[in-house]
Design brief:
Helix content is 47%, strand content 24%. By secondary structure, it is of the alpha/beta class. The strands form 4 sheets. The chain has an 8-stranded mixed beta sheet with strand order 3-4-5-6-7-9-10-8. It has a 4-stranded parallel beta sheet with strand order 11-14-13-12, with helices on both faces. Helix 4 (138-153) runs antiparallel to helix 5, helix 6 runs parallel beside helix 14 and helix 14 (361-399) packs antiparallel against helix 15 (406-432). It is globular.
Length: 433
Amino acid sequence: MSLCHTVQIDLLDKTKYQASSPDEMCFIDFLHNLGIVFEGDKKISSNSKNKSRVINFQSKQNYYEILQILEFDSTRKRMSIIVKNNETNKYVLYCKGADSAILSKCIAGDVKTCETHIKDFGSKGWRTLALAYRELTSEEYEICEKNLLDAFNDIENRNEKIAEVYDEIESNLVLVGATAIEDKLQEDVAETLKSLRQSGIKIWVLTGDKTETAINISTSCQHFPQSAEKIFLTSMNDIDEIKNRMNSYLEKIKKTKIKNFALIVDGQTLGFIFHNDLDEVFAAICSDCDAVLGCRLSPAQKAQIVKLIKKSKTKPITAAIGDGANDVSMIQEAHIGFGLFGKEGNNAAKSSDFSFAKFKFLKRMLLFHGYLYYTRSAVLVQYFFLQKPRFCDLPSLFCFLERIFWNNIVQFYRFDFLQHNIDGSSHIVLWNF
């Protein structure tokens, strides 16, 4: 945990840290309380090619030369770092990420027990990560370095080659264990969601959390109606099974119109749905459900869902709200984007149409200011209909009389045009205030 991260020391205050991920910040603070202090990345000498990560433990500084950092991406759902211990000269790859992306790569360690613990943590609504490592020989690292250099230099298929090299390096791992972080909700989240649902707004939650964690959070924040029956499209990789279950759900929803339904879908099943042209059936099921929960979704899948609903038969107005960089694509795809200033950075707020500090402000923005905007727009439309007789019908009538009273009509029309603009503009301004 003290090595595999992207946390940096604050330049103004050396005792503070800056992190793009709140999970990594939590790890560093936790280790700091245990006496394992991260002191930043620095070059040991002027001849050093790479920076070394400095870890202070029991008043002793340990230096680990940073050789490679395999950045996190939403496809791999993990990040890694390759370091060299300056004392033992050992090469080690440390890896952390989602349990679905780590456990399948492990060849050693108690995987079953770790899976049990992760499910238990997820049922409590905690955010989980799996940790693993792999020791490399100098020859293996040289091969990895050469493959990475070739992949980065490939102009045509750079992304594909880098993904292949990353997948090759992050294999044959030894499982260390799992971590769990409590993800507390902001105040009044449940009340806000309940009010929005009562106003007729359908609420979907699209998250990258595992299924158990997402369900627990949705239940605690009253995203699911109490009387709703949960239907699942999760952990499925057979297209025929997906088709049969979706058709059965669609028939069941149409037959029982009184009952409420809540759909839970994960990224794995959603990938099969979009790649096999089942998006229309999926949109029909989602439209008839009172709540939809998407788990283990990538940023691209979040945007795909928003785009699917935008282009559905009913063509509803969509709004997306998020607080992290992985929500940017979803926010930009929706008709209206809301961004929160959260612990995961300001990327979502900068990419949105409207931004605010807390989720509870969404209630006032939509139900109060949205209502006022709607009524003002309605009055403005009536105002334009009132303008038509004065600006179109009356001048047309006057044109019939132009030969008889030409000079008087022109003077009167100019005065009336000026006076109408003054009166009309002042009334609109006063109405908005």
